[in-house]
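Exercise: predict the structure of this protein bound to inosinic acid.
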Amino acid sequence: MANTILVGAQWGDEGKGKIIDVLTEQADVVVRTQGGNNAGHTVHLKGQKYILHLVPSGILRRKKLCVIGNGVVVDPVGLVEEIEGLRELGIRIDDNLFVSETAHLVFPYHRELDAQRESVKGKNKIGTTKRGIGPAYGDKAARTGLRVIDLINPERFKGLLEAKIRENNGILRALGAKPLSFKAVHAAYRAAGDFLKPFVTNTVILLHQALERGDDILLEGAQGTFLDIDHGTYPFVTSSNTTAGGACTGSGIPPHRIDRVVGVMKAYTTRVGEGPLPTENAEIADMLHAMGREFGATTGRPRRCGWFDAVATRHASMINGIDDLAVTNLDGLDSVGTIKICIAYRDGSRRYDYVPNDIEVLGRCEPVFAEFAGWQTSTSDARHWKELPAKARSYLKALADLTGANLAIASVGPGREQTICL
Ligand code: IMP
Ligand code: MG
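Solution:
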């Protein structure tokens, strides 16, 4: 399979979890490189639904090595709960999971600050997952963060945490929020530290040993291109680099060792949280929600939905260097009579073929649509390209052509078997 970076080409929730699970079959090592437990990757396997937040989706296949890389922010208490939950479902997690020593930690004060900043913003809120991701990356950039390597050193951890709790309690009090108890946080985090210690290692060395052995490495992205802190719809973004470059910094794997970039996108568009979404459409949202689809895996929030936005995915293809595309949720459009694809934006008399950086302009942009005839029949049993209705094939080809990359996978349902490889 070679070394592959997988990214979301839209606003997250493109169905990356399932595609990662499919691609993992050919990989030896699967790595998370950014984000934290704001992510929610859903994988359906033999009637069981697994939702992964921090643990790489590769864990669902035995014998694969899974790595939480240096670019991730780890809530250790959340990670322990996730590991225990997966074990209860019969998933083996022992010497197949590795956590980077230099990954930064998420603390309860990060979550509190996340919630406070959102409430201060009122109607201008970002709509974060309130997992403390922004404040944790903020501490990392300010060089005041604590890392996994500190957590497993009890003496050092105690001193560092005391100072951090003192500092943050001052901020929380000033915001009118309740201060935290050092004792309670310390006890919970030290317990998590003891639990996680056997998993903690120098993952950069581990990954380079894997490269030397000739292992195939899959770098699994979380969130999506337009939630990238640099390239997304700032400030309505997450706090990490969700695009392909972030996978290299977040793992320590150099760019020239990457062989392929796979972009995952839905056959339509969704977004959870605030910020511009040019193709947003209430009818599509109602249709998908009535089908029981498009509710957030982490927060349960109904996702905003719209037509496929080819301006956005073309931009994503450019930034990430997408070679191959995986299109998911094709079956979500099975009942639609006329399907639209956004091929350009219009702001008054100005036409855009790319995503404008000015968030106010993007907020005003109206989509220019091309129309496609719907296939109006179920695709969920198709297993081969030829078994798809001709109209569905033309639609998929149009998505790939407009995005500017090679169509490699089409997904027609949540199951592993509901995957068409081209
Ligand atoms: P945060 O990452 O929790 O700070 O949230 C910032 C923005 O990113 C919000 O709009 C969230 O809804 C969005 N977001 C964060 N993680 C995910 C994800 O895994 N899928 C989709 N949206 C996400
Ligand atoms: Mg998700």
